[in-house]
Every structure is written in C-alpha cells, then in structure tokens.
Amino acid sequence: MTTTLLHVRRAITPLTEIPDAALLLRDGVIEAIGPRAAMRLPAGAQELSATDKTAVPGFVDVHIHGAGGHDVMEGDAKALGTVARTIAQHGTTSFVATTITASPEATCRSVEGISKYIAGQLATEEARAEVLGIHFEGPFISPLRRGVHPAEWIKQPSAELLDKFLLAAAGNARILTLAPEIFGAMPCIDAARKGGVVVALGHTDATYEQARAAIARGARHAVHVYNAMRPFSHRDTGVIGAVLTSPDITGELIADGVHVDEPAMRMLLQAKGARGVILVSDGTAATGMPDGTYTLGSLQVTVSGGVCRNAEGKLAGSTLTLDRALRNIAALGTPLADAVCMLTLNPASLLGIEFKKGVLRVGADADVVLLDDALHVTRVWTRGLAVN
Questions:
Q1: Total tally of structural domains belonging to the chain
Q2: Which of 214, 343, 359, 381 could form an S-S bond across to 219 if both were Cys, CB 3.0 to 4.6 Å?
Q3: Model pTM?
C-alpha cells in the first residue's frame, strides 16, 4: 500500500483545527498528523499537495438502506459492494447497513448475507465504504407510525425474536430501532443492551413518559427525529419532547430539506447542541441514480425530483448523500467543525468506535475527505485507499 503525506490548508479533526496541516497515511491508518513544517517526508512516500483544501474525517452513516440502484436487504456482495462504492464517492467511508421491516425469515436471510459480506470485505484492496454492522429498523415498531414499513410484518417486541436476529447477525448487530410504548419493549431493550446493541427510539407513538422510561432503561438514540413520531404539542410533547430535553440521547436528522423543515432543524440543533445530533441519509437504492422506480426492501418506491415516495405518496427514505447534508447544515449557520462532528465523531461515538472512525488522529483508520471552499468533496480515502 502506498505511503502518502497529504498536505492541506487545514485539517478539522473535528475537535481541533490544524492550519497548514499534514497527514501521513501508511498501511491504512493515520501514522502522523500535525503542522506540515514539523513533519518530514518519509523515504519512499509520496507527497500530495492540496493546500487549497480542508481535510475532515470520512463520514459515518448509521442509517442507510441502499444506493446505486441496490438495497442492502439484497444481502449479496454485488449489492453491498455497489452501495459501498456509490456512497464513498460522496465522502461516506463507513456505514451501518439498515434493514426495513420484513418477515423474520427474509430479515434473517438478508442479515446473514450482510454478515458474510462484512467478514470478507477487508480482504480486497478496493476503495469503498466499510460496512460497520447492521441497523434493524423494525419490526418492533408502532403500526400507527410505521411510515412505509409493511404493516403485515410488524411484530410485538420480543427478546426471543431479537435473539434470532442477533444470531443471524453473527456479532454484527449495532442498532435496534423500536417503539417503546409497545408491550414487550422493555425486556427487548434489556436483551438488546445485553447483546451490545444500541437501542434507538423510532417509528413510535410514545408519550413523553413512555419515551423517558425507555431512556432510563438504556435507550441512547432516536431515529430520524420528527419523522414517524408522535407529533409535538405544548401539552403533549411526546417522544420528541423527551429527545429534545434528554442529554443522554442522540437524535438523527435527515437534512435534505424535504423530511424536516428548516425551523424544526434549527430547533433540534439548538436543543441538542453539536454533540447531540447525528446526520443520516436514510438513503435508498435511488441514491446516486436518476428519477425512476426502485425497491426499498420488498416495497416499490418512485423517485420524482429526487424525492422517494410509495404508491400512497408517503416519504420512503431519501436520495440524500452526506456531503449534501453537510452543506445544508452549514447553510443554516452551523460552524463547520460542529457540522463535521455530526457526520463523523458523533456517529462513531454512538457505535463506540471513535478511536478508529470519525476522527483524524494517530492510529485511526485513514478515512479522509477533502473539501473545497463550497464544501464539495474533491478527494476521498477509505482505509488509505484513494477513491476514484
């Protein structure tokens, strides 16, 4: 693997900013980072000058269903590889493959395929995003707030069924979305936590009290805040009120300008702060593709003007990429370092891998994105491999 000394105008780590910075990428990790003047070019290394660019960590997407015409629930190397290559071009260097509610048998088949792909993905030296694990979005959700999830496969929360999913995941389960108000949710939260899985509140009609009880039980995250949740009102704040006022829980935001209006985005950012928000794509197979008809799990969705909807006209995921989410949040006046945190360090911290992902530091994976002044991605490295 080539050793590269990358010289940039500045590096946002994202907790600190290093002007006139250099990063030494060797054997897939960051071997050194600091001011260029203090760093020597090792023998045999190549120096790449990008002194008009900003280096940031590779983006981490904890909620994505597909891209490039493929859905992660296809569960095979072709589909997952296409998703990984497509999003890497937009700066996402790692992601959590997200399922949609399906039959237990279909879910297990998909998850087994994803796990097989994860086991072999690093054996090939190809520049593409790394699959970090699996996010189960369903089936333990509210029928009232199911969005486009198929009603026939929604299940009451069950530790026994969860155990089947975890077995199929072969140690790769990372996030479980559930509705905490449904009978059986609390034992399911206990089982998920015992299995090392992050519990997320989502697709839920929970009251404030029910959501707070789940947070006290160990829920740490909220999926696509505002969307598929009990509406907020001043006398019935619901799960949204619990998320906005609970410092122990992070909140996802789909910042595509379609899922959430600007004032609501600002409210979430102000309530949670820079370290409490995680930008996600909720991307589908239509991401990176022209308008047309695609699949989301077993569902058919239609994309018009870049917006995904099912036959009933309900939003069905998105075509958002995280580079566009970064630009949209920065356009609200968010400091760049804070916006970068929401795409990198925050999701990595949620997964407990902030020592190797979502940060520019010695020993971390060499996942690096270069941005121009307009915050467009110009170059990407994933584990030290340059994305074409």
A1: 2
A2: 214
A3: 0.97
